[in-house]
Amino acid sequence: MKKTLSVSTILGLCMVGAAGLAAPAADQAPTAHQHPADNKAPAGNKVPAGDQASAADKVTRVCQNCHGPNGDSTSATFPRLNGQQAAYIVAQLKKFRSHSRDDPHAMAYMWGMASQLDDNSIAGIASYLSKQKPTAPQTGGSRAAEGKKVYMNGVEADNVPPCAACHGEHGDGNGEVPRLAGQHADYLKKQLEDFRSLVRTNDIMHANTKDMTDRDIESVVSYLANE
């Protein structure tokens, strides 16, 4: 594995983000209102703590090269992981490791990195990052007010369900559903567009985004970056 692959460790989430933006792929075709996680998190969404000292070292030496100190990235190319749901980070890292998440960004950056992680390392990194202080909301956002309506209520005319139904009223996420609040708007925009076009495959998120207009996407990410 070339040394240059170790410049980053991202989610997806992705995760989410979260996010994330997003969730693991589901095995069956969903309805638009289904929960976006296919593999249920352990009871109570608890994730083993792993080796915290080793995890802090990995985050400091490797992850922060792209994701920033303690996961607070400054580049929209790489998602913020600070305060992200631990179960979501675990799920995404394991998908990178197994190559079951195969969007171009994952293949370019995360397949190589995740191949070097065992389950204990993954659990430790996820636990460590989840405990870091989330990024403070940004200010501004020309379509934040419109985006809040999309996020909270959906867009009935476009058959778009409310994001809050799964990601929570304030975008905090839960378990394998990623935190979206405070994420880079451009990162979220790219993930939603990729779900919509199936560049990033996920049955549930495709069902939820396939009818979103560009304006719907631009509005909701404007809101989330400021939440």
Helix and strand arrangement:
Blueprint: E1 15-17, E2 20-21, H1 52-67, H2 86-98, H3 104-114, H4 119-130, H5 144-153, H6 164-167, H7 185-197, H8 203-209, H9 214-225
Antiparallel strand pairs: 1-2
Helix pairs in contact: 1-4, 2-3, 2-4, 5-9, 7-8, 7-9
Please characterize this protein's 3D structure.
The protein is mainly α. The protein has one domain: Cytochrome Bc1 Complex, Chain D, domain 2. It has helices at residues 52-67, 86-98, 104-114, 119-130, 144-153, 164-167, 185-197, 203-209, 214-225, and strands at 15-17, 20-21. Strands 1-2 form a two-stranded antiparallel sheet. The N and C termini lie far apart (39 Å). Residues 1-45 have low confidence and may be disordered.
How many separate domains make up the residues? 1
**Biggest β-sheet: strands ordered side by side in the sheet:** 1-2
Question: What overall geometry do the principal axes of the alpha carbons give?
Answer: globular
Poorly predicted segments? 1-45
Tags for this model:
single chain, about 230 residues, mainly alpha, Cytochrome Bc1 Complex, Chain D, domain 2, two-stranded antiparallel sheet, 2 strands, globular, disordered N terminus
Short description:
The chain has 227 residues and is mainly alpha-helical. The chain has helices at residues 52-67, 86-98, 104-114, 119-130, 144-153, 164-167, 185-197, 203-209, 214-225, and strands at 15-17, 20-21.
